[in-house]
Amino acid sequence: EAAVKEAVVKAAGDDEGAPPAAPEKKESLVDLLVNDCLKNPFVVGLAITYFFIYVVRQGITSWFVFYLLQVKDVVDPGAAAFRVSGLELGGLLGSLLAGRLSDLLISKAKPGEGTVGKRIQVVIGYTVGIAAMLAAFAA
């Protein structure tokens, strides 16, 4: 066994006299957060977009029933609640459709165009779509 170890050490080369390898400095979680997320304008842009979409979604699910009853003259609260539940169903179907759309765009992309940009196009399209739907509903 000692002979085998000696042969392996000789085959690998003699490290005597070489300076000891410096231990790799591991980035802290805070450094990773700041350098990889907060300093990346694309990540920050997506976070801001998601924040506003979340605010709109929560506002709609919380207050939309009252809006339908008081402003749009829907008489039955059950009917108003049913209309609001369409948002959640639309979200489920929309997320599935968004995945398919982004996969389709990625499969048709030329080499080097990147996959993240194709997914961002779908996100931007959905953001414009929700803004248009809110504007149409307000009219």
Helix count equals 5
Q: What string, H for helix and E for strand, traces the elements in order?
A: HHHHH
Number of strands: 0
State Rg: 28 Å
Folded structure, characterized:
The chain has 139 residues and is mostly helical. Helix content is 76%, strand content 0%. It has 5 helices and no strands. The chain has helices at 2-12, 29-38, 41-70, 77-107, 116-138. α3 (41-70) runs antiparallel to α4 and α4 packs antiparallel against α5. The chain starts with a helix and ends with a helix. The mean pLDDT is 83.
Question: Would you summarize the structure shown here?
Answer:
This protein is mainly alpha-helical and 139 residues long. It has helices at residues 2-12, 29-38, 41-70, 77-107, 116-138.
Give the arrangement of secondary structure elements:
Layout: H1 2-12, H2 29-38, H3 41-70, H4 77-107, H5 116-138
Question: Features of this protein?
Answer:
139 residues, mainly alpha, 5 helices, elongated
